[in-house]
Amino acid sequence: MKKHNYSAGPCILPQEVFEKSAQAILNFNNSNLSLLEISHRSKDFVAVMEEARTLVLELLNLEGKGYQALFLQGGASLEFLMVPYNLMKENGKAAYLDTGTWANNAIKEAKLFGETTIVASSKEQNYNHIPSKYTIPSDANYFHCTSNNTIFGTQMKTFPKTSIPMVCDMSSDIFSRVLDFSQFDLIYAGAQKNMGAAGTTLVVIKEEILGRTGRTIPSILDYEKHIKAESMYNTPAVFAVYTCLLTLQWLKNQGGIPAIEKVNEAKANVLYSEIDRNSMFKGTAAINDRSNMNATFLLENPELQESFDLMWKKAGISGITGHRSVGGYRASMYNALPLESVQVLVDVMKEFESLYCEKSQLA
Ligand SMILES: *Cc1c(COP(=O)(O)O)cnc(C)c1O
């Protein structure tokens, strides 16, 4: 039976990425060797890394603008500490916007390095919106924000103007929408949400912001060392990087970010219209801030959970159980999820309403 995979991460990737990466494990580039058994310094793999790094900058429209793309390891979680290590001066200061669990984890690490100001937080409202009024201290070494809050289903639609370097965790919405990416000085994203297999983290850095801290940085955590080594300072996560390359090629063939943005908007519109219309459900995120990637919603009557769960499972839907900190449901609609899968979910929601609406009112 066809599955409709709404997993929040690791998540759905294009079918052709699964097929081509499976093929590369058996016989990479007709070499009769597996991608997994060749040197990362071999011509064939160096070409993979180069093309992946170039495609990132091309798709983000950052070519020739002083940026470097790296495929590192340790997940987005390691970036939580690499960012302050590389950008916060000795006795310096950083500013963070607290929009959810991941932002909070980033803040925890920054505090290990120096004074960390939280410019605003929506924690008191269980992160159901993005704070809009705040000022960024101009004496901070950088400002850090999270573009999409995977767990709470909120997404920053605009970004503040600031004179200090802006760092953004884009783990769950990179390559999903058109933005002026040059407003950011450092972008990072764990691959497993919208880009490839788990095991690598994309970091895009404007080179001129590096080397200003006065800190001695351990080599493996030093962005400048990774840039100098062309993202091969140590053995990269070869399989994960290869799946990223395949996904980026797929994205380019779809028409790049502008084309996928239209599809993502269409999917989000179909689902949110139903959440808003259907008397059995309610969304958890403030309407203006809700995410086009992760839609979070609850049942009006939680006693009907078992009945609803049976219905969507029967329809082949997988991975929509909400994160424990919000409860209810979370439908993650990353780039590779087709519109048809969203239609299947919406049809189940409609059918659920027609079967249980009255019962729910009596309850
Ligand atoms: C999943 C996620 C992370 C954590 O990523 P890891 O690669 O598992 O470390 C960080 N930030 C955001 C926004 C995420 O969605």
As laid out across the biggest beta sheet, the strand order is 2-10-9-8-5-3-4
Fraction in beta strands: 15-25%
Which hetero ligands occur in this complex?
pyridoxal-5'-phosphate
Give helix and strand order, one letter per element, not per position: EHHEHEHEEEEEEEHHHEEHEEH
Q: Tell me how many strands there are.
A: 14
Rounded mean pLDDT is 97
Question: Mind summarizing the main beta sheet?
Answer: 7 strands, mixed
Gap between N and C termini: 35 Å
Question: Helical stretch count?
Answer: 9
Uncertain ranges: none
Helix residue percentage: 25-40%
Structural shape: globular
Radius of gyration: 21 Å
Describe the structure.
- The chain has 363 residues and is α/β, with parallel strands linked by helices.
- The chain has helices at 15-26, 43-59, 75-87, 101-111, 223-228, 238-254, 256-277, 305-314, 339-362; strands spanning 4-5, 67-72, 93-98, 115-121, 143-146, 148-149, 154-155, 166-169, 186-190, 201-206, 281-283, 294-299, 317-318, 329-332.
- The strands form four sheets. A seven-stranded mixed beta sheet has the order 2-10-9-8-5-3-4. Strands 11-12-14 form a three-stranded antiparallel beta sheet, with helices on one face.
- Helix 4 (101-111) links the parallel strand 3 and strand 4.
- Helix 2 crosses helix 6, helix 3 crosses helix 4 and helix 8 packs antiparallel against helix 9.
- The longest helix is centred in the last third of the chain and has 24 residues, at 339-362.
- The radius of gyration is 21 Å and the shape is globular.
